[in-house]
Known about the structure:
Helix content: 25-40%
Radius of gyration: 22 Å
Strand content: 15-25%
Largest sheet: 6 strands, parallel
Amino acid sequence: MKSLQVITLGCSKNTVDTEHLLFQIRDSFEIVPEGEERPVDYLLINTCGFIGDAKQQSIDTILSQVGRKNSGEIGKIFVFGCLSQRYMSEMPSLIPEVDSWFGARDLDPLIRALGCTPDHSSDHKRILTDRTHPYAYLKISEGCDRRCSYCAIPFIRGAHRSVPIETLVKEAEDLAEKGIKELVLIAQDTTFYGLDLYHKRCLAELLRRLSDVDGIEWIRIHYSYPADFPEDVLDEMALNPKVCRYMDIPLQHISDKVLDNMHRHVDGAWTRALIGKMRSRVPGLVLRTTMIVGHPGEGKKEFEELLDFVREARFERLGAFMYSEEEGTYGAEHFRDSISPKTKQARLDALMSLQSGISFAYNSSRVGTEEKVLIDDFVDGTFICRSEFESPEVDGEILVKYSPEAFGGIEPYSLVGEFITVRITGAFDYDLTAELLNI
């Protein structure tokens, strides 16, 4: 049996694609885990092509693996994903050492090129590439019908396509059988879910159906678009104990001028009203958002407005990016990227400094509270945990020191993937410390 390894770059959506691919070819190849350094017959690279840094990482990875191929460590290299989808006409001539290129929407041709036959009756099956953590991402749709001026995703990933509810429930059941306790719902826009298949937004219905799956204890929503937000999701979040009181909603800005240039189809007043409605209808809700600084149209006035909004909204979680002009987007064709990198960096630093204080204040308010947490890992004598208010990989962690006395002599690694109750004892800008109350 020939050996095959996949290197997955970019976002969690790429990880899910890789896991579905691996299931389709599982019987034909010895699958070598990513990161294991050994010669392989086939190396597949799942690339990201979203912004400049991600594109460079993909290209650097391809070139480094070409070096391994030239030294005889790799038989064939296949590249797929967003970078090759976006630059399919250029890449083969630029890096001819790659044996085949496939786009982000070409999983079936890739499977056939590997000598296998796609089996769509198994679309709900995956081989998890991370078996150490009790959470998994569930991609509920592909593509995007939005046309934000800065974003290349629509012409990379194509139009919005929802995965049928029945398929997602089967996938969740399969993940639960593998020991997964938490599902993180992802898509280019999770709030758009269902419009193409069912002619209505069905995210709330999907949440109800997934919460019926035995073994799944937490369901978390990521990548929610603010325009036309389906408010029945808030009811589900407030009343359904399995749906985390946590919402990832990338707002990108608050200035009417900048939002209009971004083609976000909302204005500042509407955004403020939505945030207020979310907090009032879901008591204790934690909001995570992302902002873009340095977008065309953002002058000093607009940036100060953004800072004022962040002070006012007090997002528990916030990430930010500097605007990156991407060829092929409306922004690149119609706006001039006139803000200097130095100014963009200064604005990013100012925004994140402000958010650091807000995050610390929120974490400090939790000291002394009792919380149910999920143990993600055990490292150097410490349990790495999260409550419903921390999402994996992007948020802080709750750190609980292990001692045989406190844990009744239970072998610590046996507790990874289990829920425990803790009392928060200390706060930092992003992480928390806690002590065990009960198992």
